[in-house]
Amino acid sequence: MSRTLRQDYRAADFQQLSQMIRNHPLMKAETETDQLELQKLRTPEYRTKCVMRASLDDIALGINLYKLQLGGGDETATKTEKIKFAPVAVGRSARKSGKPPATPFIKVLLRQTPLVVLFERPSMTAQLDSEEGRQVLADNQRYEQLLAGTDKSRRTVDSDTQTMTALKKSRLVNTERLCTDHVASYVSNFEMFDTYKDMEASTKKVQVQGEQEMQVTTYKVGGVDQFVAINGLPSFRLALMLTMRILASNVFEPQQRRFRNMTPPDPFAEDVQFKYRLRLLWRLSSPSPEASVRQAVTSVSFCPNNGDILAVSYGIYTFAQLSGLRRHGFVYVWNIKNPVNPERCYDYRVPVVTVQFSPVAPQLLAIGLHNGDIEVRDISQPDLPPLAISQRSSSVHFEPVTAIQWIQRSDGDVGGDDGVDVTPFLAASQSGAVTKYQLINSPHLLGFEHQRFQRAEGELEGIPLQRPAPEIPLLANRHPQCLELVLDPVQTDIYYVLTDEGTLYKCSTNYPLQHLELRQVHETPAVCMDFSPWSPKLYLTCGSDWCIRIWLAGIIAPVITLQHHLSPVHCARWSRTHSTILVSLSHTTVDIWDLRYSTLKPVSSSTIDAKICYTTFRFAHCGRSLAVGNEAGNLLMLSFEDMPFPPHFQYRQLKRAIYKALSLEPALKQQVKSVGHFGYPRGEKLTTMQ
């Protein structure tokens, strides 16, 4: 409860205090006797008799000196003591008095009192690595031994507490002091002359940044180049690799932080704009600076256990005007910590078509060549030859290997070296065959033909396509070319194969030499297939008929068809962060589609190098970065900027977008509803897709 504050509040208290100050004896007028007594105090005679110890601080704090006058008056009947305090004036007096001295002053000495301990609580802990700590630990163990037993055990309760003192530095970060010393050394000019005279100096010109040249002088001892000998040491190459990572981080630190998602977008920002923009982080250079060498990026594979490492294969993508050009292949293993130089380099005499890391043993890399050969390398040991190579006795095909997928081990597979559980892998080639390879205790791969497809005849499920029967069958063209191989996200024994006829074969590792289903998905060659991370039944396919088709298991016709550019779609994949967004790659643009807004055109189209054709792309593990390759041999690392925030219920958003796209097709929409729930249990996301 409050009261109104008046202007005369506490005015009576101030008046009473002022009256008491005016009535105080010190405030009254002094008599002549008091003035004479004060005059005595100002003489040097009486000033020297005063032995008072007071500092300037005491005077500043208000400690005044007073005269103590002892004695009794004549009029007092009883012997009483009167004490009168008179202030002592510290100053120089010009007048002297001849009166007899009065009673001497009392000596007052002010000293500091001893320290009084009000409360003390000794420490109950000790450092473990000290002598006191070891004694305390021994006492605690002895105490526990004495209380061991059912009746002697005491009840204890564990509790946590937090002190207000913030520990700024731990003892673990302290290092030993480095001791340095000056050591004298002497080398004469004659010794240096004799040393360099024994060496054979050679000067070479090295190109730096394409146009500039730098001269490098090396020395040989006994005909051996010392730089080559030092470069062959594993420790030197490891130190060189780490040094180059540190130097590259000085230039690409902001881009590396963006690739690692260290600065996520702020959902509370005021100027949020959804532009679906792609930003170039860095560009991985091509293997050879010569323009006459065909070095297009044919495949990209990220390491399953370390998203910073990716393998890139270089070879031939466009087969036009191949006469007179050298055909070489390269496989480079890059690390985002050093976007300037690759950390592993493998050269081949034939173009490389595909690469794929093993999900079980991430250091193993399967490489498919243009002549039908397959190699498996261990990138953790760059000096060793390939672990295993395919041989013609088990794989008689000489057409390019277009796709490789590692699968799970079955009961009939042969074990690996020293009992190591290395899974086999499937390889699809343009000969129309799918071969299964296994690593055994041999320098060669154990392979056998798993599938051999025949060209489709008649009318198939899927899109309607009329196939005229050939008048004269060609025996050399009986088998379709396998262009893509994709594993089922749920059933480990199921895989899908796309061919140049635009057909989709569904096969199983448990049923070799026969396929389970056959569907016509495109009118021209189908080159890519990808499952949605939020639905094991929803997948997309793209081909050279300028279309991207979205399919749902259980429905024969495509659910949604996307078409914008009048050019083949080289690659298309679902976004790893948004259920309704997918990315497609055409001849010169990177398109981003959002099914929530439109199925007629992409929400954005980006072009980085307008004069260079794109070949393939791959998402990073986080889903917010994109690695795009082109025919010039450059790998562009792009990041998604100004993207919408991911919805909380991804599957629900995907379902609404599909129903919205099928608003004008009620019959097809009813078929989709009849499928029921087509997502993962509890709306989860598949995180192991690559």
Structure explained in plain terms:
It is built from 10 helices and 34 strands. It has 690 residues and is α+β, with helices and mostly antiparallel strands. A 5-stranded mixed sheet has the order 19-23-22-21-20, with no helix packed on it. A 4-stranded antiparallel sheet has the order 6-34-33-32, with helices on one face.
Describe the structure concisely for a colleague.
This protein is α+β, with helices and mostly antiparallel strands and 690 residues long. It is built from 10 helices and 34 strands. The protein is extended, with a radius of gyration of 46 Å.
Give the terminus-to-terminus CA distance.
Answer: 71 Å
- Say how many strands there are: 34
Shape type: extended
Strand order of the largest sheet: 19-23-22-21-20
What's the average pLDDT? 80
Helices and strands: which structural class? alpha+beta
Question: Rg to the nearest angstrom?
Answer: 46 Å
Largest sheet composition: 5 strands, mixed
